[in-house]
Amino acid sequence: VGVMRKELGLMLESMSNVNLLTPLLVLACRNESLGSNSFISLQEIIEGLDLKSMMNPWGVFEVNCENMKGAEKGLDWLLYHLTKERMDLSYHSMQGQGD
């Protein structure tokens, strides 16, 4: 988890020059054939990456590596937040413009 946290920190630092709250999607890949004891829980991922302290919207979703089941939920979540942010931007960019 420490390596993930460091990578996330570097990514967020590089994005800090942009004023957008880019949503963060974490896909927790699971391989059912390895058994459930070999996984980091979603709660451990959230705590390990300190996601609750982030200003950006974030979502953590389980994905089955063998059939990608669960990926669609994460992608739907991401598209929702990107679309919402885009609508907010277009609304704000139109403010103060004459008809």
The total strand number stands at 2
Which ranges are low-confidence, i.e. pLDDT below 50, for 5 or more consecutive residues? Answer: none
Gap between N and C termini, in Å? 52 Å
Strands ordered across the widest β-sheet: 1-2
Round the mean pLDDT to the nearest integer and report it: 80
Q: How many whole angstroms does the radius of gyration measure?
A: 17 Å
> What does the overall shape look like?
globular
* Run of helices and strands: HEHEH
Q: What characterizes the major β-sheet?
A: 2 strands, parallel
The amount of beta strand, in percent, is: 5-15%
Helix content percent band: 40-55%
Structural class by SSE content: alpha+beta
Count of runs of 4 or more consecutive helical residues: 3
Provide the fold topology:
Layout: H1 2-15, E1 24-30, H2 42-48, E2 58-64, H3 71-94
Parallel strand pairs: 1-2
In short:
The chain is an alpha+beta fold and 99 residues long.
Task: Describe this protein's structure.
- The chain is of the alpha+beta class and 99 residues long.
- 45% of the residues lie in helices and 14% in strands.
- The chain has 3 helices and 2 strands, in the order αβαβα.
- The chain has helices at residues 2-15, 42-48, 71-94; strands at residues 24-30, 58-64.
- The protein has a two-stranded parallel sheet.
- Strand 1 (24-30), helix 2 and strand 2 form a beta-alpha-beta unit.
- The mean pLDDT is 80.
